[in-house]
Amino acid sequence: MDSLADFLRHLQREHPGEILEVDRPVSPGSFQVTALLGHLESRGQFPLVLFRSARNLRGEVSSFPLVTNVFATREKCAIAMGLEPESAGLALSLDFAGRLQRRLPPGKLAGEDAPVHEVVRTGEDADLRDLPLVRHHEMDPAPYVDMVTVFRDPEHPFYNLAFQRNMYKGPRRLGLYMAPRHSWQLCKRYHERREPAPVAIVVSHHPLFFLGCLNVQPFGTDDYEVVGGVSGSALRITPSATWGEDFWVPADADLIIEGEVPPGLREIEAPFGEWTGYYGPQRLSAVVEVKAITHRRQACFQDIFVSHRENWILGGIPKEGDVFNAIRGVVPSVRGVHFAFSGNCRLNCYVSIEKQAEGQARQAALMALASCDFIKNVIVVDADIDPFNEQEVLWAVATRCQPHEAVDIIRDAKGSPLDPSVTRETATSKMIIDATMPKGRPFASRTRVPAEALKAARIEDYVSAAALQAIPCCWDSRRSQ
Ligand SMILES: Cc1cc2nc3c(=O)[nH]c(=O)nc-3n(C[C@H](O)[C@H](O)[C@H](O)COP(=O)(O)O)c2cc1C
């Protein structure tokens, strides 16, 4: 797998509109970075941003440039996967779902040859205050690292990789929140033996590494093999600085924090701005005692603008393809699936089908809900509606269905406990809207300019490029529609 620096160079060279470089010093620990990202967002602009002079927690310009917004457009995710930006729609999600089926065992690299070990800081030198840690939202009590943790089973040699947040608590102390899933289970196994659980936090790496970490595989799967499958080449791993060959870490990462989670210790952590756009509650969470920070000589420090677009895209891409494939099993004429930004790429799912028989829309919707528990609302539309175009989807809702016939509510199904409207822990109601045209009876035809006329009348033949350029685009997010 290439390095993060390779990816940045590729964007600079081939897709300069996708990367913005800021030289002026910024203070990520006091909301300056998220404020600037917020301004870009309100302009409808989502470039990767490379802050060349980011201050660390001591207030000095850090030696680590800060990279953020890496996943804020699907186009950048497609580019990271070696696809054309034009494949950033459903093709990207289907490609990702296909890659998740592959496994490639990791390749082993001696510690001294690993780029991530070019600099090894241990003991007092492993100091989190040297890093440009980002505080994201007003009520976050401290800066957070919200990248990928690596845990290993204490008895079997498999590793689990997952995005998990770590709150800054002191120069060598972090607060780690783990929902009761695989990492939590592995950590518990060490704690049942009264041993601290080793953990590595991969802070910066090529985006393909992080995309591979979005997999949700059965417990016991070696995620290093899955990441290799997603990236198409074996992930190189190397003995960690702290535990040697007992715990291997990604060799081509830019920066890794190694630490231990002691048994029986819980401390206050959060509130934290979540993907929902709301704060998640304060909790008693695990603690990481930092043992080492290792990095490349020219390492970048990477962050995710949580609770914003890149957080949503990372939630949606790994699921969209699976949901499409699940629906295709029962409705082979499914044409598209999209997890819309309006539901933070989780709660609202739009499905388009070439309807061949009545009942198929409900069938497709039920399959979507069954295959992905975080979907709350499913809207099924006809194949002439692009599920990636929300305005078209809502037009279909407005004009192709009668609510008393088209809307179904399912009560008490499993959803996300972070949805603030949920009143019973994880139980939520779910809504299906069948916005497809009826079959077997006439329905109004949609207006169209003839396709031949569109093809024949080229606008460039009638209007100069400069005049066209000067007209504001009404699809621009700043203009009312
Ligand atoms: C950007 C991002 C941040 C996340 N933060 C957390 C977190 O702080 N804690 C957590 O338990 N899950 C978090 N998740 C969700 C987990 O990564 C996800 O549930 C994953 O499947 C867990 O992996 P596992 O099942 O292998 O344990 C986050 C996901 C993303 C994309």
Automatic annotation (TrEMBL):
It comes from the Bacteria. One of its GO terms (molecular function) is carboxy-lyase activity. Residues 112-307 form the 3-octaprenyl-4-hydroxybenzoate carboxy-lyase-like Rift-related domain. Residues 314-435 form the 3-octaprenyl-4-hydroxybenzoate carboxy-lyase-like C-terminal domain. One of its GO terms (cellular component) is cytoplasm. Residues 13-88 form the 3-octaprenyl-4-hydroxybenzoate carboxy-lyase-like N-terminal domain. Belongs to the UbiD family. SUPFAM superfamilies: FMN-binding split barrel, UbiD C-terminal domain-like. This is UbiD family decarboxylase. It comes from Tectimicrobiota bacterium. It holds the Pfam family UbiD_C.
